[in-house]
Design a protein that fits this description.
Layout: H1 2-16, E1 18-19, E2 22-23, E3 31-36, E4 42-44, E5 49-56, E6 66-71, E7 75-80, E8 88-93, E9 99-108, E10 114-124, E11 130-135, E12 142-143, E13 148-155, E14 165-170, E15 174-176, E16 186-191, E17 196-205, E18 211-221, E19 228-232, E20 243-248
Parallel strand pairs: 4-10, 12-18
Antiparallel strand pairs: 1-2, 3-5, 5-8, 6-7, 6-9, 9-10, 11-13, 13-16, 14-15, 14-17, 17-18, 19-20
Length: 251
């Protein structure tokens, strides 16, 4: 009788585990792994942030999975299917919010079972570039007869110097010299300036639209011009008082 009772119990268990002649098992959870960015990394806000990961599920076709990327500061970033049958998922966050935040990759299968992966990153706000005019010297008079060398030193915490936008401007002669910096951050150009007291400004702009400005005064000297004169009267007689009149003064 004991053997028969155990047989009934085992038989009932098998019947309960069968459906249409097939043995079923519970829905296993999917998997989610973040590949980039790394946990704890610090990146610049001036550059787009590449999010990439991989998801999978043993009991579901990969493209039937639903993937979301979210940020604790930026909210929902992406909602859709994996990029390919290998389960890769990528999202380029063009304008990441500054500050420390959690980025989460979540995946859910058609049965409602889900999995998540989270990394913490620090987005560093864009810092303005640096700039300084190194030549010519501030306030030192120069001649208008020959080209003048303008030189400066620029830099940026998030970008290489070559990517910075450069502009030299004179308050008298206008903009000139937009050459790109060298890899060492040196900017230079030559210009012949018109006579007068010039206010020369070097402006540097980075990819995040942050700017730096430096200004010097450059007095530009020129040789005096020859004045123009006339006689009064223009056809004098021997009895006339003769005067010399300056019709155009010297500059």
């Amino acid at each position: 009788m004991r053997t028969f009772a155990w047989a009934l119990i085992v038989g009932a268990a098998l019947v309960g585990a069968c459906s249409d002649g097939n043995i079923t098992s519970g829905n296993s959870p999917p998997s989610a792994t973040i590949l980039t960015p790394s946990d704890g990394v610090a990146v610049s806000q001036s550059q787009p942030l590449q999010l990439s990961g991989v998801v999978g599920d043993r009991g579901t076709a990969v493209l039937d999975l639903r993937v979301t990327w979210t940020s604790s500061a930026g909210g929902l970033l992406f909602d859709g299917s994996p990029d390919d049958t290998a389960g890769n998922t990528r999202f380029l966050w063009n304008t990441p919010a500054a500050g420390t935040q959690d980025i989460t990759l979540a995946v859910i299968d058609p049965g409602g079972v889900s999995a998540t992966a989270t990394v913490r990153v620090t987005i560093i706000g864009n810092v303005a570039p640096t700039c300084a005019i190194t030549a010519p010297s501030d306030g030192v008079a120069v001649s208008s007869a020959s080209p003048l060398l303008f030189q400066g030193q620029v830099g940026d915490a998030e970008e290489t110097p070559e990517t910075l936008l450069i502009e030299w401007v004179s308050n008298i002669d206008g903009a000139f010299g937009a050459t790109a910096p060298t890899s060492a951050g040196v900017v230079s150009t030559t210009r012949t300036l018109s006579p007068g007291l010039h206010s020369i400004t070097l402006t540097v702009r980075d990819g995040g639209d942050q700017t730096c400005m430096d200004t010097i005064l450059v007095p530009v000297n020129a040789p005096p011009s020859v004045p123009e004169i006339a006689f009064d009267p223009s056809a004098p007689r021997s009895v006339d008082d003769l005067r010399v009149v300056i019709t155009t003064p010297s500059e």
